[in-house]
Description:
It is built from twelve helices and 18 strands. By secondary structure, it is an alpha/beta fold. The strands form three sheets. Strands 11, 12, 13, 14, 15, 16, 17 and 18 form an eight-stranded mixed beta sheet that branches. Strand 14 (307-313), helix 9 (332-352) and strand 15 (353-363) form a beta-alpha-beta unit.
Amino acid sequence: MFYPKSPFLGKGLQLENEILKVHTAALPQLLSWLCQTPRITTYRVNTLRTSVIDYKAKLQEQLKQRYGHQEPRVYGLHELPEMLCIAPLDAPADAQYDDALRQLIVDTSCGAALLRGAHIFAPGVLAMETGTQLQELVNVFADLAGKCKRGTATRYVSDEKIFLGVGRVLMQRHQLYNNNKESASGIAVHMETNVSGVPTLGDLSDADALLQNLPSIVCVRVLGPQPGESVLDMCAAPGNKTTHIAELMGDVGRVVALDNSASRVRGMQSKLANYRCIEAYHFDATKALNELGEECSTGPPFAAESFDRILLDAPCSGLGNRPQLSCSIKQAKVLQSYPHVQRNLLAQAVSLLRPGGVLVYSTCTVTEAECEQLVAWALRKFPQIRLVDAQPKLGAAGLQLAELDEDQCQMLQRFGPSAENRSDDLDTVGFFIAKFEKPKN
Length: 441
């Protein structure tokens, strides 16, 4: 498959140069890696409901029904006993372009999901040729340039579209583009094959297991929540890490989930309702500390030193979400805006953490400013916290900066293209994890 060399193609060098200002020599490799598809699919098993062995058998049966005796391997990692990995298919070359088939165009967001094993939902379909029938096989392309108009009925001609695979049509044009009805929803095209080799299973998430990126699972393991503790998830939506925290605690203790979006909090309520220990609030975590020092029994804001452990999975540029076929960020000032918010959130977290407590800072991005530089700032600003080793270690060390010594960089965990990074073998997304402790006096 042809992948772009950068998710910022056509948007100038200024955006690219914002990502790595110190390690500039590594930038071309990083940009190319961001455009490529992670080929390992990971599920986190809810061990409060089922066993990993039972869920593995369930996955294997579904894969066998889909692929027969050529089903991909399902395996685990001892560092993350609640996780199962699905290997890529042995022969992704089966996704061949057939010029006799009609074409279907999707946007780059839909295309990225498709390459990771998803089917195509109705909102992602930009163009479908007139005469396309139900159950017909079509060639699926992604429009990198973003110039294809939704509802296009003729074959879309462009040098900036890439072939993704072959799908079977489940919705026709009149279902997708009828303006007199509500917007179409549901699966519009069932992918038969894709060029990445990731099994085309869709999302098999249910109450027993959740489709989740490996570094996100590592992140909560690094936090290490224990039964009976009080834990704060500062930016919780969509709630995947929140439920993992509750599961590791055996659903015993208190887990407070905050998010500043009312719609996102509503969206995760059904997921969080399965856990006794989780409380969810629509609240801006940059104001989570009660400056008057008062404890509010009904929710935020909270008094200082209220929590044993805090997870700050901070709002970020999201550049680690592979594959990045085309980045929606268009201006350097957008990238530059994230560290300000991240610093405000970290300041709140340090005040809310009890002596002896643990704070984990994480992002799903790869920029130095939002990762290593944020850690260096925190260590300068808050002498009451110290950096500790982020175990279990499946990623590489952090990038070296003048403000961080080699030992400190080794304590960090960065998922990206690196010869020393186990995530190369696991082939996962870009992610960053730092673990702090607040020693007791």
